[in-house]
Write a structure and sequence with these properties.
This protein is an alpha+beta fold and 247 residues long. Helix content is 23%, strand content 19%. The chain has a domain of 158 residues.
């Protein structure tokens, strides 16, 4: 049975609520979320939702021990759940189906902890660092946190690429062992170092919240907007596992 530790309805206080943010646009439906076009500086769409269901019970019944486990429909529907637990499962499967119908390949993960860099090339390149997603062709990223800590975003105006910080760039040039030219740029790209950012003084990161479905811009050739800077929450095994949909 559900424990009731979490409200059976995700609190409205959990929904994305940053101050005025010209980079993020709220939408009112799934259709608007997937059909809206990035432009005029907007590089993130958010569909705020208050979701019914006991997601804490789902996490408890899953009893995931590994750092991360991909969850399929068979695994979820086989859980011994209360009515509200089944409501939560139905909601997650509905979201997966909606995205799959659009030709996407969404995944639902139960995450206890993300891997960190084993041998970073001078800078961390894990998902706990502010970063942007990239692709060789037009693409975007969908994500929703159903339980646990949520992602956070950072306006492009409030961030600087880490490789543009003079001290950091000098350190990376030393690691590279060459001149600051085309080869160095290729070195940064091959190691994903050019995708990571740090917040400027006074920056105000914003919370993606629990329950809201997001679509964020990716860095690709010809993109009409700057990519959305974001990061995963700092989570460890001491925290509640995270239920995350991502595509």
């Amino acid at each position: 049975m559900g424990t009731g530790r979490e409200s059976l309805v995700v609190s409205a206080m959990s929904i994305f609520s940053p101050a005025e943010n010209g980079r993020v646009l709220r939408v009112r439906s799934f259709e608007e979320l997937v059909e809206s076009r990035f432009g005029n500086g907007v590089n993130a769409f958010c569909w705020p939702r208050v979701l019914e269901g006991d997601y804490a019970e789902v996490v408890e019944r899953l009893a995931v021990k590994e750092a991360m486990e991909v969850l399929g429909a068979e695994r979820l529907t086989a859980l011994d759940l209360s009515a509200q637990g089944r409501v939560a499962v139905a909601q997650m499967l509905e979201d997966l189906g909606r995205l799959a119908e659009r030709g996407l390949d969404p995944l639902l993960n139960c995450i206890r902890e993300y891997p960190r860099d084993e041998d970073a090339v001078g800078l961390p390149t894990h998902v706990y660092s502010f970063h942007v997603d990239s692709a060789p062709t037009e693409a975007d990223t969908f994500l929703c946190t159903y339980h646990g800590l949520a992602s956070s975003g950072l306006r492009n105006e409030e961030a600087i690429r880490r490789v543009e910080v003079p001290k950091t760039r000098a350190m990376l040039l030393n690691v590279y062992g060459g001149d600051d030219g085309v080869g160095f740029q290729e070195f940064l790209s091959e190691n994903c170092l050019d995708l990571h950012y740090e917040a400027l003084p006074g920056a105000r990161p914003y919370d993606f919240g629990v329950g809201s479905l997001w679509r964020i811009a990716v860095e690709y050739p010809g993109s009409p907007v700057l990519p959305c800077i974001h990061r995963a929450p700092e989570a460890t095994y001491a925290d509640e596992p995270r239920l995350l949909l991502i595509s």
